[in-house]
Amino acid sequence: MLLKILLRNAFRHKLRTVLTICGIAVAIMAFGLLRTVVSAWYAGVEASSANRLITRNATSLVFPLPLAYKDKIRSIEGVTLVSYGNWFGGVYITERNFFANFAIEPRVYLEQYPEYVLSGQEKEAFLRDRRGCIAGANLARRFNWKVGDNITLKGTIFPGDWELVLRGVYRGREDNIDENQFFFHWDYLNESLRKTQPGRADQVGFYVITIAHAQEAAMISDRIDALFRNSFAETHTETEKAFQLGFVSLSEAILTAIRLISLVVIAIIMAVAANTMGMSVRERLGEYAVLKTLGFGNLYVSLIILGESLVIALLGGLMGMAGTFPASQMVGRAVGDYFPVFMVTRQTLCLAFSAALLVGVVASLFPMWRASTVPVAEGLRRVG
Amino acid sequence: MGLLLAYSLRNLLTRKTTTVLTAAGMALVVFAFASIIMLAEGLEKTLVDTGSDDNVVVLRRGSGSEVQSGVSRDQASIVETLPEIALGPGGKKLVARELVVLITMTRRASKASANVVVRGVSETSFLLRPQVRLAAGRFPSPGLSEVMVGQSIAQRFQGAQLGNEIFIGGRNWRVVGVFHGGNTGFSSEIWGDVDQFMQAFRRPVYSSVIFRLSHSKLYSTVRDRMNGDPRLTLEAKRETQYYRDQSRALSTFLRVLGVTLTLVFSFGAVVGAMITMHSAVATRTGEIGTLRALGFQRRSILLAFLVESLALGFIGGAVGLLGASFLQFFTVSTTNFQTFSELAFSFTMTFDIVYKAMGFSLIMGFLGGLLPALRAARMNIVEALREV
Q1: Residues A153, A156, A159, A162: what is their CA dihedral angle, to the nearest 10 degrees?
Q2: What angle is formed at CA B199 by the lines to CA B196 and CA B200, rounded to 5 degrees?
Q3: Minimal CA separation from B82 to chain A, in Å
Q4: Mutate which of A95, A243, A268 to disrupt the B interface (most B C-beta within 10 Å)?
């Protein structure tokens, strides 16, 4: 009954209400989209496992570590698997075709990352072919690669043309696994380096370490770093999550900006909604005066206004939330090369809903105050 | 007509709350638009100012940035023999061998780590970069473990202040100077002696060779000569072009983000303006009828309401731009994806941005006011007068 009154009230001025609802819907959609962009940034962090550590050179990622560290790390108690790799930074045809490509030690690496699902046959073919490579499903789709295709990467860090053969296409076990990566044999890289630049051979960019118990992560990290303290290449070991967070924090200024902007859009729509509510209440002051004369209290009158405002804001909010899905799918397709995982999360939806709720409440505050303080006589005197 | 204009503008004054709310919505849109474009502008300006047109950067072919590049000693010596290199004071060739690496440092404010460029420089590097001036302390002496840091680094990073020691490559480096790079990327770098760095980092190769052309037009000669020399696997780029390339990805990202967001946001603001103007027309039906009865033409009424809504747009635009102009006091420091290193730059306001933002705001006002104004102009005199 009450809802019916609220709806009737809200749609008394159809054009205005429809416009406001559209405005709120678009704003909430924009808000949802921005939050999705932010969470896309954190996709790598979400997908990381607590059982994996990453060791890199303490100075920075651009410095390598000797291959000889592998066995030393392996011998530390609590470490179960060790593999290694290099950020290869190769370019496929032109620089526009950016994707992450790594030279890795494949056998252990794939064991450490069971979330990259590869059929047994493809895995076998990849492990057996020294020039073999594997690509994520998204990446393969993007360039229309089929298993067996020849792929040539142009090296930026390791000069030359690197000829590879696609031996498999992996899929993510969960939705949030990056399917845009590219891996090939570290041995292939290393053997070529031995011939062309012997000074750079037998060095790796990072070690991936699997530990038996996640709670020992801090202790084992310290042990690894202590092992190589005061050596030519000191190490910095952290959990995979911290490592990924480090990448996110590189662009923290941009993330902060996006977060701020997502608040600005809420502020904009708050101004619009408050304007609408203000107008409705101003026009109807006479009616509220009548209600008051009939004995309805200020509280009741305020509740009617609040309810109306919430009806408008939530209608808009729900429409906006519904629109977030197709919109983010569209954007996701457009920026998929940079943000491999672009999904609307439940947290985003919750935030969007609270934002709509907040808009509804704030927009009605001033009109509520106005309607409950205006003296009955003055309210009745106003016509129209 | 003057009367009608005054009527429109005074109406905005009378209905203060509505005017303020609508203009505030538009101001926020303009603010968001201006601030993102200012960021992209600042980034480009910083990186373009970093290079100078007469300087040429020589990198290994195929490597996009200095960090990825490698130039061996013998190749560097060959480059130094190029006859097109300008001579400096004392007849010395203006050519510098440099080493660029990244190190991880911790930010003071957020304790987050970031990659900072460490540049090993030769003595001529300072002659090639006249923008770089000492702000405090002295230049590092060659042969010693001394560095000088850019101002943005000294302000933002732990342990990078004058007199401190930075631990890099297994050695402590004393910070003996802080330099001023002006509005360039050098302000976000740490400089020290190239030979010391090569030893400490165990890098047998330089990252780049920089030289000044004796005449700006000689660039293509140099490029062709280097491409034709089979001993060199290097490529030459004008310094300005080199730095412009490095800003492309991030600034494109910012611009696309800015324009897309603003288009979405402006929808909200246009709706706001439309609501306001519709209500302005609706509550003044009687007055419009009177005006028409007095002999004002439909066209004049249309114009009057459009002016009112444009005025709303103008107020919104002005307030938004005023707010955005305060952003110029802030400096943003973030990682440039392309070089994977830290870069500080400030919001930069240009006339171009002012025009665009203001035009944008006026368009919002126009779109919002068009339909309501048409409705006002189409009103039937008799019916409008009956409303009162």
Answers
A1: -10
A2: 85
A3: 24
A4: A268
pLDDT at residue A153 tops 80:
yes
pLDDT digits (tens, 9 = 90+) for A289-324: 888 889 888 888 899 899 999 999 999 999 999 999
Contact A279 B275 (CB under 8 A): yes
> Average pLDDT over chain A, rounded to whole?
90
Q: Where are the domains of chain A?
A: 2-43+252-381, 59-233
From A252-256, A350-354, B123-127, the region with the lowest mean pLDDT: A252-256
Residue of A nearest to B251 (CA): A254
Does position B302 have pLDDT exceeding 50, yes or no? yes
> Closest partner residue to A279 among B67, B264, B279, by Cβ?
B279
Angle between helices A14-41 and A346-373 (to 10 degrees): 140
pLDDT greater than 60 at residue B388: no
Number of Cβ within 10 Å of residue B355's Cβ equals: 10
Dihedral, B302, A382, A307, A360 alpha carbons, nearest 10: 50
B298: phi then psi, degrees, rounded to nearest 5: -55, -40
Sort B17 into a burial class: Cβ within 10 Å, 0-12 / 13-18 / 19+: middle
H helices of B65-113, in order, are 73-80
- Asked if B214 and B84 touch (Cβ cutoff 8 Å), the reply is yes
Of chain A, the percentage scoring pLDDT greater than 70 comes to 98
Report the alpha-carbon distance of residue A91 to residue A101 in Å, rounded: 9
Tokens of B300: 């004049």
> pLDDT tens digits, residue range B158-216?
989 999 999 887 789 999 999 988 888 899 999 999 999 999 988 889 999 999 999 98
Q: Return the domain boundaries, chain B.
A: 2-48+246-386, 55-212
**Closest to B60 in 3D by CA, of A190, A100, A157:** A157
Helix (H, G, I), strand (E, B) or coil at B131: coil
Q: What is the DSSP letter of A95?
A: T
Q: Cα(A274)–Cα(B275) distance, rounded to whole angstroms?
A: 11
Size of chain B in residues:
388
Chain A residues within an 8 Å CB radius of B335: 250-251
Query: Do the Cβ atoms of A23 and B267 come within 8 Å?
Result: yes
